Structure formats: structure tokens, C-alpha cells
Amino acid sequence: MAWFYLTLAGILEVVWAYAMKQSAGFTRLTPSLITLVSMAGSFWLLAIAMRTIPLGTAYPIWTGIGAVGAFLVGIFLLGEAITLLRVAAVVLVISGLILLKLAS
């Protein structure tokens, strides 16, 4: 279950990052509330996952899911550029996450 919680925590990290972008600097109420609630949920699930998964594995995977997810949200929802260098960077992040999972 710890890996499930960690994955869900990473997904909520993507949610709060996107909602924060939509909040326009916390000037819009609904996206601001979504940011705060999903942030709290993400931290809570990360804490539960870290009861079992070591910090050195859990935290990088949590942030990696958030980074890759935010990259994909940026491309598909916000129209950000897809460049070879950006894609290569994300492939490296994903490779690192896979190696961390295999090493744990």
C-alpha cells in the first residue's frame, strides 16, 4: 500500500501545481482552495508512505512524479513547448525514478 500512497501523493502534487498556476498568485478562490487541499493531501500521503519507504527513495520519487506530471500538464493543458532537450530531460528523470524503485 505504501507505493500506492506514494503514487497518489505524487499525482496530488501535480494537481496542486496546476491549481496553483490557475490561481493567478492566489487571487482566484477556487484554484487557491484546490491548491491548499491537494497540497495537504499530498503531504499526508507522502508521510504515510514514508512509514515504510525510506526517505531517500520516497521523496525523490514523489518529486519526480510531480515533475514529470507537471511537464505533461504543461504540454497538454497549457500548450507549453515540446522540445527534444525537454523530452530528454524527462526521460532521464523517469529513468532515475525506475532505478530508485528497483534499488529499494
UniProtKB/TrEMBL annotation:
The chain crosses the membrane at residues 33-50, 57-78, 84-103. Keywords: Cell membrane, Membrane, Transmembrane, Transmembrane helix, Transport. It is found in: Cell membrane. Belongs to the drug/metabolite transporter (DMT) superfamily. Small multidrug resistance (SMR) (TC 2.A.7.1) family. It is a multi-pass membrane protein. It holds the Pfam family Multi_Drug_Res. This is Multidrug efflux SMR transporter. It comes from Lujinxingia sediminis. The lineage of its organism: Bacteria, Deltaproteobacteria, Bradymonadales, Lujinxingiaceae, Lujinxingia. It comes from the Bacteria. PANTHER family: GUANIDINIUM EXPORTER, SMR FAMILY PROTON-DEPENDENT DRUG EFFLUX TRANSPORTER SUGE.
